[in-house]
Amino acid sequence: MSRHLEVREVLRRITASARRLLGAEYAALGVPDDHGGFAQFVVDGVTDEQWRAIGPLPRQHGVLAAMLHETGPIRLDDVRRAPAFGGWPEAHPELGAFLGMPIVDTDHDHDQDEDEDEDGPEVLGVIYLANKRGGGGFTDHDEELLRILAAHAALALTNARLYERSRELTLAGERARIAHDLHDAVSQKLFSLRLTAKAAAKLVDRDPARARAELAEVARLAAEAADELRAVVVELRPAALEEDGLSATLASQVQVLDRAHNADIAFAADRVRALPQAQEAALLRVAQEALHNALRHSGAGRVTVTLAGTPERGAVLRVSDNGRGFDPGAVRRAGRHLGLASMRDRAAAVGGRLTLDSSPGTGTIVEMEVPGA
To answer: Is pTM beyond 0.85 here?
Structure first.
């Protein structure tokens, strides 16, 4: 359960583990919403056809929904005889023995205001098991096993939620940065383009030669704006790290950039092993930022991206260009950081190291090394 950081996958793992561990025919896990029903509901042991036929979940009635407000287990020899039993669709499998266990965040009340403390611990979800294999009901031993599993599940689910929240914050930061880039670059170019087009229109009859020069400037500004938009679109593309891995993801993004820009952009990988997810994500973001700088600011005709494994099971990313280069000290003094602080922060956050080599007229090399597992 703890190896996965996506909430949906953690829920699925918990449900399948509970069903196997206790030898149940059916298992489910419901996560409460703010309205007395379920925000998410995962099942195990039910076919897709059965699940579609069952239809909508109970909202504020029935044994399942009633347990969303309980902090203790419920064990029944036959759930059909429970006072709260009701609302079960015809297509639902027939249930008998039943065991429900809440997944409780016991640390929740430490984070609450004093007025809220009396509400007690937060119910993160409820595990439901039905129909003990081999007949009979669930035992005290089953209940204790499920209690232990639910305690681990609370940690795994909390970690997954925190991870997804941090990812949302990271994405929000990336969106803000891209919006800033759009405002600073594309918006200004479009404004200049509009003014230049107006000037050309006024000069058509009075000074045709100057009007032609202004129209040439319109064409240049339009091309630059199109390049800026292409770069933003590429940055908005979701990175397929989990499905494809870092090398394939970088190769794909370089291929897209190579088609979108006049510069020749190449990628090569050598003996790259799988790296921890955080390190791969940091390498990808640094590569994107370095490519963004090279294509936007350097005037490079060629940009090369390489990714190579190290003997210590880490990796080195290198982004080099043959552009005009710059003086890093002068850039810092002018308040133009080119994302360098962000790249260094990303490297440091995963135990890596980032170096920059550039001077006017010599191009730029950005290199990042990570330690691996």
So the answer is: no
